[in-house]
Fold:
Amino acid sequence: MAGVEFFLSEIIIWAKLFYTSVTFSAIKLFLEIYVIMLIVNIILLLKQRGLGGDMRDTLLGMNIPPELVSKKGKLRAKWEKVQAKLKSNNESDYKVAIIEADNIIDDLIKRMKYAGENFGERLNNITPGQIENIEDLKKAHEIRNRIIHDESFILTKEEAEKTLGYFEEFLKFFMVWE
Structure:
């Protein structure tokens, strides 16, 4: 028992010496400067983002439509109607499903305030770091464009499912399905 008490008293003496040492004072000074710099950086970043705007935009770094944040049920219902069209054996239903899915995603991206006159331009203004599967969205939009502009374009059920999957990955990125 005396050994434990001696050991504890030595630790306390060492801690007191360290607490009053120049080394500890230097560490404290470094940490104080570091914390001040962090606070200044946070303030400058918030000022640059524009504190006067929507706080959700400021914190997330982009405008997120409510369907991707809190009103996911409404979006899920729309998406289920699109997917229901794939249960048919009619190619025109597959094409309508792709067009509707493209419109849903375009509307969401437009409300995220990405620049561009149309969905294709908006997609080109998005960098891969901003939206994870941007290249897949471009492929899906290209299929939609072929449906619209090429009357002889044939869309198989498998290709329609794959294309809708690209759009669905975008929704999964925003955790519409948890």
Summary: The two ends are 56 Å apart (CA to CA). Residues 2-49 form one domain. The CA atoms of residues 85 and 96 lie 8 Å apart. The chain has two domains: 2-49, 66-173.
